[in-house]
User: What shape does this take?
Amino acid sequence: MANNFFELFLSLTLLTLAAIPLGKFFKLVYSGQKTFLSCLIKPLESFLYKICGIDPAEEMSWKVYTKDFLLLNLWGFIVLFLIQVFQDKLPLNPAQLSAVPWHLAINTAVSFVTNTNWQSYSGEATMSYLTQMVGLTVQNFVSAAAGMAACVAFLRGFSRQSSETIGNFWADLTRSILYILLPLSIIFAVVLMSQGVVQTLHPYVNVQTLEGQKQVLAVGPAASQIAIKQLGSNGGGFFNVNSAHPFENPTPLTNFLELMAILLIPFAFPILLGELLNKRKEGWAVFTAMLILLVAGLSIALFFELKGSPILQSVGVHQGMNMEGKETRFGVVPSVYWEVATSATSNGSVNAMHDSLLPVTGLVALFNITIGEVIFGGVGVGLIGMMFYAVLALFIIGLMIGRTPELYGKKLGSSEMIMTVLAIVLPSVTLKILAACAISLPIGLTGLNNFGPHGFTEIFYAYASGVGNNGSAFAGLNANTPFYNLTISLAMLVGRFATIIPALVIAGSLAHKKISPQNRATLPTASLIFICILCATVIVIGALTFFPPFTIGPVLEHLQMMAGKVF
Amino acid sequence: MLKSLWKSLKILFVFSILTGIIYPFFMTLVGQILFPFEANGSILIVDGKSKGSVLIGQKFTKDFYFQGRPSVVDYDASASGASNFGPTSAKFKSAVIERIAVLQRNNPSLADKEIPGDLVLMSASGLDPDISLESAQLQAPRVALARKFAVKEVLELISSCAQGQQFGFLGSPRINVLKLNMALDSLKGINYGR
Assistant: This one.
């Protein structure tokens, strides 16, 4: 057990150390400068620009940037939808899986295009090898890269002045994939395979067990997809149970590395912020705020999960240790660490079943997701979300002292405030309305696997995960129905576009403004007080918005569990 | 607008080729060359027959074999799955009580003892290949009796098959049930499996 805490400490230390060079590397990549990878990748990059007709030097206004972002999403949706509904007629389908039903295909297409990777389906029983590769793996890359591009454009709003433009979307997208996502994925996939993650195009394997029964082992081109789904905040598993599956996460080492991969790129983004603004301390301030929130959530979750369940204790399970929905090779501490990391970022992959975690442990995940996944958050979009909170925090302080709020030298006007409030309020409202509909309608209640307060949490978590573009689930809920597939699709679309479009609008407006010099009345954004205010804003807004659902869900369940009550 | 539509489709197509075809095929090639055993599922082949994957648990019901964790999919490796029961589910509680009762009936030495969680609680994948060392040791008397071995001998086998934490600090100590049972079968040449 003590060793597991060392594992956790080591992982966070390594990630912090890796974030520094990575953040600097990102700056070079996005400004088109030479990096150590240029000699290898530059020719490929130029070739892609040529055949696609991209001029990387061409600058875009926020409107054009947004339009191209939306068009890419539109095509991504159409293509992925078509691949799924025609997969039975397409090659590379050795398990002879049938066409995906329309409502599931819509849900999955929206899910992967919006970087959510919510899965209403079971991978090995639904998706052909072709769909997994040409459909899903592609969107794993493209949706992650699009989020990173949006964040970089957003940051240009702060770093540029008197500018009409915020960069070139296609160049940002291409560079994200070629210099960052693809090289990391290739290296990572090799390491995964060496430990036992499958990567084959052979059909499922038939074996005879020791007791003489037949067992069919689902295999497939998994390692290539798992590498990117961990790195790109995607989280959509190749197999049904995601990274709990021994072919997807075979050893404690792969678990350690897959977990680091969840956090690696998100850790580097606040550093990139500091680099782009030429204000490193500002980047570290945001980083520190995120780290504080991460460690706080992690401590709470570990404390409660390790105490065990009094109900299990009462029926004779040693120390009430809750191993339900957990794998032996990982154990409790790495499972909880993963749960917190995957919900803090918008990754959503799992190595233990969130539905079976103890109530307060589940609450930490729910909190991390509903505040908008700003604790490091998804690649790119996590930092955008945290910046919304920073804007809000400075606005509140501005009101108190009667001054125009300023962030990194840019005066925040009414248009920035409107967009920020929109980005924070719209997803929460959508989440609450949809969850309220589902718990009031018989069609929403039929899919429940648990009852009492836990049943409520199952439904609420589904929409929270959708709106947050997270993708993890309280998977007992059978969400593969037209009702859930369509309403969760709506949640995912709102969550994605209500983050990125306001961010690009703000970027356009800020890029136009001059950077005003810091004076004595400006709140220093590299100070301890700023870190505290930022954390407090996140917690207060999160708590105020979601206190009622938290209470009737996990909090109530915790109290009932302590009293030994079951439903 | 039409131009932008066409351009974005072209770009998606190009990236589909790169990340959806070239990348996974290249990784498959690398895997098949460098790690053919692992990339194809770590399949154990004994006397020319596939005995299963080292990584995937199997269903063991016989007294003379160690049993793995309860699985909601009955170790169907083409449909992984978990129970997804929450901690306050009534069905969950009664299922655990039932499993403990069955376990104690089959292992008289466990009567009135607390049971390690992994032995009576379902795994996340339904395919967990491992159990904890305690869970293996608790089954030793039953297995020894069924095989007419000394309990000490079985316990020694357990400790020789046990895996510690990887590199001394990663994950949890565990024992692979399939490997343990195969080691049992090969002990003294007696093979109850056939």
